[in-house]
Amino acid sequence: MCIFCKIAKGEIESFVVYEDDRVIAFLDIRPLSKGHTLIIPKEHYENLLEIPAELAKDLANAIKIVCEKLKRLGAEGFNIITNVNEVAGQEIMHAHIHVIPRYSGEESKPISFGNPIECDLEEVHKALKD
Ligand code: AMP
Ligand code: ZN
After folding, report:
1. Does residue 84 line the site of ligand 1, with CB under 6 A?
2. Residue pair 112/81 in contact by the 8 Å Cβ criterion
3. Domain residue limits, the chain
4. Are 124 and 73 within 8 A, CB to CB?
5. Can you list the residues of the chain whose pLDDT is less than 70?
6. CA dihedral for 66, 69, 71, 74, sign (positive or negative)
7. Whole-structure pTM over 0.90, yes or no?
């Protein structure tokens, strides 16, 4: 079973930000900004392109909910990104959408993968979990 399937089943701990029957959202362990969240379908699909349309709607709904929550941290904008296939930087082959909050005062250039920030995930989770 893949690591994100294990997270979806609660077999690996994560900082859950949002959950419903079909979707779970949790903090990325190597955040690119404070509150960087991953949204995944609970069922295993390899990437976003494999996901049926109905489930894609559930993911879109979760994106909105998660973005609203991230505004609590002061987020004023978001990069909403999905990497499809290794050639595009996908490392975990379970479909996921990165929601990366952006804050004023930062450079507003596109976010770059591979430069995680130092961040206390427990503290961020406290602000987002309810
Ligand atoms: P991608 O490169 O699009 O496949 O992104 C995978 C993301 O999953 C990376 O940003 C990792 O930091 C993140 N990640 C890997 N393992 C975990 C985990 N156990 N909990 C939370 N995020 C994870
Ligand atoms: Zn999986």
Report:
1. no
2. no
3. 3-128
4. yes
5. none
6. negative
7. yes
